[in-house]
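2 proteins. here.
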Amino acid sequence: MGSYKIYIVEDEEDMSLLLKAYMEKEGWQVEIFHDGESALKAMEKPPHLWVLDIMLPDIDGYEILQRIKKTAETPVIFASARDQDLDRVRGLELGSDDYLSKPFLPKELVIRARKLLERVYEGPTGKYQPRMINEYELLPIERKVFHKDEAIDLTTKEFDVLLYLSEHLNETRSRAEILEGVWGSDYFGSDRAVDDVIRRIRKKMPRLNLETLYGGGYRIEHP
């Protein structure tokens, strides 16, 4: 396993130092933030994993999670004293990958973090692994795309559609499937929104080999 960078957002100093010590034994680089504001400032340089408390002195963990997911696809583990089912469900709905209720053993957090990091980053099938697609370098964590070291300026939805199709290379995905995978099941607008985003991606990335299959949908052809 690689040397991953972990951000711990926890206002209890003793707890945060204990978790840091356990994680550093794994060879991971760990930074601690005791409030939401300092954590948000660190978002410019995203880690491989966030360990996030819900109850913080300034900004709650839910808002931080939403801000994280707007800018990056970094996995998040909630670790909180709030053990209500609604809190757990809300965290998962907002995009957290796991939830631990305090008190918990630091070793349990390490085990869960290790499994999550392995699933996300290890091996060629890792969802957030950097990848080359027809001359374009896609960096899922940083949400950036490059062509020969030149950055391609994509909107949030353009990047989301590109990432979704990149996870299904050479597979046709219908408008309905793309809407479900990118916009979510609660989207009630026109499916032509997909066509508009595809058109813009093609204009910005002409060498992507993004094909239309009439009556079928869209796919990226990749050798």
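next one coming up
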Amino acid sequence: MDSGGKWYVVRTQTLAESRATAHLNNQGFEVYLPRYCKQRRHARKVDTVLRPLFPGYIFVKIDTQTQQWRSINGTVGVISIVQFGMELLSIDEAIIANLRKREDETGGVSLVISGLKKGDKIRVNEGPFEDYTGLLEETDDKNRAILLLDLMGRKVRVTAPLENLTAA
């Protein structure tokens, strides 16, 4: 469903991004809620869940000339459309397209930088493991990567900042 118009930022209530998205879709708006995969540990169990990439915000495509967009502010789960004075905050279409292009089969946006993906060989450039090479296992939401390094004859999981890594 590709209507005309621009993408705008909408502020949602706490933990209500999905609810707001569903209600806006029911009103005929095109809505984008980018998510990422996060590993959750609870009761000795690890599972993967989709979490909003921008908590408290969603994107809505609106043609302000033809759509009744003011109803968005009264939608369940929505606080308001983000504005500066009387002007709505629009987002470049290329940003939305880039986020959608980085989605994987689960619908989550890949947080891995520079085209690196799980299983790629990487090199640590700074820190206590400088010049070590290992395999990228995953990234987290705190701009860190979890690596498998071969230390003293065994594979060890190590966390490192993404900016300290390059492809090996």
